[in-house]
C-alpha cells in the first residue's frame, strides 16, 4: 500500500511541484552548472543577489543541487575515497565503450590507460569546480 504525500495538492500545485522537481534534477547536469556559474558567482560576490527575484532563486536552487551532487568531496576521507572509486569505475567503463564502440580516444578522466593522471585530475576538479561553489555558498 502506497502513500500519496501529494494528495492534498491541487492539480496546478502538483504540476508546479513536478516541474520544480524536474528542474532540480536537471540542474545536476554540469553543462547547466557551467552555463549559470559565472552569473551566480558575480551576483553573490557583488552583493546583487536578490531573494525576491524568481530567476535568482531558481539559479540558487540549481547551484545548491550541484553542491549536493558534488558533496562527496566534503565527506571524511573513507567516504570520499569510496565515492571516487565508484565514479572512476563508471568513467573508465564509459571510456572503454568510447574506445571500442565509437573508436574515440576518451578524455583523460575516462581513460583507464591514463589512470596515473587521475589524482592530479581529481585535485583540479576539486580546486576548479567544487571549492569555488562551496566558497561562494559560504
Question: Layout of helices and strands, plus pairs?
Answer:
Layout: H1 11-26, H2 30-45, H3 54-69, H4 77-101, H5 118-137
Helix pairs in contact: 2-3
Give a short summary of the structure.
With 138 residues, the chain is mainly α.
Description:
One of its GO terms (biological process) is signal transduction. It comes from Liparis tanakae. This is Dual 3',5'-cyclic-AMP and-GMP phosphodiesterase 11A. GO terms for molecular function: 3',5'-cyclic-nucleotide phosphodiesterase activity; metal ion binding. Zn(2+) binds at residue 69. The chain folds into two domains: 30-69, no CATH class; 76-138, no CATH class. 67% of the residues lie in helices and 0% in strands. With 138 residues, it is mostly helical. It contains five helices and no strands. The mean pLDDT is 92. The radius of gyration is 19 Å and the shape is globular.
List its salient traits.
138 residues; mainly alpha; 5 helices; 0% strand; globular; Dual 3',5'-cyclic-AMP and-GMP phosphodiesterase 11A
Amino acid at each position: 500500500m502506497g502513500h500519496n504525500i501529494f494528495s492534498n495538492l491541487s492539480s496546478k500545485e502538483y504540476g508546479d511541484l513536478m516541474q520544480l522537481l524536474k528542474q532540480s534534477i536537471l540542474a545536476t547536469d554540469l553543462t547547466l552548472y557551467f552555463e549559470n556559474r559565472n552569473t551566480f558567482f558575480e551576483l553573490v560576490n557583488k552583493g546583487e543577489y536578490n531573494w525576491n527575484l524568481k530567476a535568482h532563486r531558481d539559479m540558487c536552487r540549481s547551484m545548491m543541487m550541484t553542491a549536493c551532487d558534488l558533496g562527496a568531496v566534503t565527506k571524511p576521507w573513507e567516504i570520499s575515497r569510496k565515492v571516487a572509486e565508484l565514479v572512476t569505475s563508471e568513467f573508465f567503463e564509459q571510456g572503454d565503450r568510447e574506445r571500442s564502440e565509437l573508436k574515440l580516444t576518451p578524455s583523460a578522466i575516462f581513460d583507464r590507460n591514463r589512470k596515473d593522471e587521475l589524482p592530479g585530475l581529481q585535485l583540479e576538479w576539486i580546486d576548479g569546480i567544487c571549492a569555488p561553489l562551496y566558497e561562494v555558498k559560504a
